[in-house]
């Protein structure tokens, strides 16, 4: 356990404790542990389609591939800040931490009592000039609903919005662009096993005949297959 105060306790003698002040003053390890790209980076739990929680092991290579791809696609860099709404046991937080920080950006943290408070979100977005939003659709809907009711609460600083983890309402792109006309609205998805996300689709206009927001296209080094009931690849434009 890494602690920030010398007098802090882990609560158990069985847990190794390292104070960060001591860590940065210590000598480098003579024989550092070598990590291969295929080795586990973290284990995260998901219920998936079964409803039964299961631990998913994600490799360094998988998580890094996703973070690098998203940063490149949407020009994430040192000028960006993300509002870190997702809990650590939800894999959207993996991108908030390792993706944005890797690009030189910053995380704007929320207090526990602010996690479901759109008024607090608006204040943080404005105070810290937050540029990126990354959450499930319901939370962004909450933000827009609050902003639509208060003239002084606008998410115009958000240059890019990334939504995933649930069904995305057809009304959300237009409601967002009422505040930020040139903003990027990105629908994303994919199984936890595929390292946060597998696909992305930048949405511009929503045609009247759309019944849902498209799932998008595979991310770099990932692919999708549309198969029939026997597991055979379907032809182009064929339903599977």
Explain what the structure shows:
This protein has 240 residues and is an alpha/beta fold. The chain has a domain at 60-218: Rossmann fold (3-Layer(aba) Sandwich), CATH 3.40.50. The protein has six helices and eleven strands. Strands 7-8-9-10-11 form a five-stranded mixed sheet, covered by helices on one side. A two-stranded parallel ribbon has the order 1-2. A two-stranded antiparallel sheet has the order 3-4. It is globular and about 60 Å long. The mean pLDDT is 90.
Largest sheet: 5 strands, mixed
Mean pLDDT: 90
Describe the global form: globular
CATH secondary-structure class of one domain: Alpha Beta
Order of helices and strands: EEHEEHEHEHEHEHEEE
Give start-end ranges of low-pLDDT stretches: none
Helical content, roughly?
25-40%
Radius of gyration using CA atoms only? 20 Å
Number of helices: 6
Specify the structural class: alpha/beta
**What is the CATH architecture term of one domain?**
3-Layer(aba) Sandwich
**Strand elements, count:** 11
Strand order of the largest sheet: 7-8-9-10-11
**Residue share in β-strands:** 15-25%
The CATH topology of one domain is: Rossmann fold
Protein name: Irp2
GO biological process, one term: amino acid activation for nonribosomal peptide biosynthetic process
InterPro entries: AMP-binding, AMP-binding_CS, AMP-dep_synth/lig_dom, ANL_N_sf
EC number: 6.3.2.-
């Amino acid at each position: 356990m890494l602690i920030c105060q010398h007098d802090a306790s882990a609560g158990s003698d069985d847990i190794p404790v390292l104070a960060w002040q001591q860590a940065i003053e210590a000598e480098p390890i003579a024989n550092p542990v070598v990590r291969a790209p295929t080795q586990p980076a973290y284990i995260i739990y998901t219920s998936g389609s079964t409803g039964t929680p299961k631990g998913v092991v994600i490799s360094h290579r998988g998580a890094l591939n996703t973070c690098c791809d998203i940063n490149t696609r949407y020009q994430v860099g040192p000028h960006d800040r993300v509002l870190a709404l997702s809990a650590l046991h939800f894999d959207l937080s993996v991108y908030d931490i390792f993706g944005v920080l890797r690009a030189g950006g910053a995380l704007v943290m929320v207090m526990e009592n602010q996690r479901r408070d759109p008024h607090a979100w608006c204040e943080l977005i404005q105070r810290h000039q937050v540029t990126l939003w990354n959450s499930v659709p319901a939370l962004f809907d909450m933000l827009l609903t609050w902003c639509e009711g208060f003239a002084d609460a606008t998410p115009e600083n958000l240059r890019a919005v990334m939504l995933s983890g649930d069904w995305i309402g057809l009304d959300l792109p237009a409601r967002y662009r009422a505040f930020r006309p040139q903003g990027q609205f990105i629908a994303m998805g994919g199984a936890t096993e595929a390292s946060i996300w597998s696909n992305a689709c930048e949405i511009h206009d929503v045609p009247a005949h759309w019944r849902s927001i498209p799932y998008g296209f595979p991310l770099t080094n990932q692919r999708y297959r549309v198969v029939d009931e026997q597991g055979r690849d379907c032809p182009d434009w064929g339903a599977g």
